[in-house]
Write a structure and sequence with these properties.
216 residues, elongated, single chain, mainly alpha
Length: 216
């Protein structure tokens, strides 16, 4: 495929750029999703309400709409940044809503007696959650959280379509629009790039599941 061999540097650059978007969104969504999940199970009504509001808004908003709102709406109020930053932030806050729900499901699988026992020995809510509940819940949510992150990796292509620049989608767009390469081999090259990312992530997820299964 000449479109790949003749433009190898462009594809590699796009692949690395896409990995950068995915890496930031993965870390950010795990951290933010955990914070929102804690709010969702908090005994404080205000925090529960904020967590529920966050999930309701971002889980039910199409990613493309959210990206365009962030990229073009936020600058309208005087906050400016690159499309790379806006795109990564949009992907992060969107994915965090799904991470939150996966984590909340794992928290709910921990027997209530565990929390009651922790409180009986004097642990407060934060200590009970971090020392007793979350360590057990995190083991149970590896598959669903992993699947959410794999979906995020595929969704990163939408970030590229929103105008981030330099990623795999941008490489495909440049080769077809500016250099006149045929659609089929070019889009195949882009698809292979995303397949390498998601298949590798899937293999790592399967390995993590097996390790945790042995640990049980």
């Amino acid at each position: 495929m000449d479109v790949v061999t003749d433009n190898w540097d462009l594809w590699v650059s796009g692949f690395v750029r896409s990995l950068g978007i995915i890496g930031w969104a993965l870390v950010g969504s795990l951290v933010l999703g955990t914070v929102v999940a804690v709010c969702r199970v908090s005994p404080i009504p205000l925090l529960r309400g904020l967590g529920t509001f966050y999930v309701s808004v971002f889980r039910n908003t199409p990613l493309a709409v959210l990206l365009f709102f962030i990229a073009f709406g936020i600058p309208a109020v005087g906050i400016n940044a690159s499309f790379y930053v806006f795109g990564t932030v949009g992907l992060t806050v969107y994915t965090a809503a799904f991470v939150c729900e996966a984590l909340r499901g794992g928290i709910n699988t921990v027997a209530s007696g565990q929390a009651e026992a922790a409180r009986s020995v004097g642990l407060n809510f934060g200590q009970t959650l971090t020392l007793v509940v979350l360590p057990q819940a995190l083991r149970a949510v590896v598959p669903p959280v992993g699947n959410v992150q794999i979906a995020m990796m595929k969704n990163s292509a939408i970030v590229g379509a929103a105008g981030v620049g330099g990623d795999l989608f941008s490489a495909y767009n440049r080769l077809t629009s500016a250099q006149g390469y045929a659609f089929l081999p070019t889009v195949t090259g882009m698809a292979v790039g995303y397949l390498l990312i998601t298949l590798t992530a899937g293999a790592l997820l399967a390995l993590a599941e097996r390790k945790l299964a042995v640990a049980r």
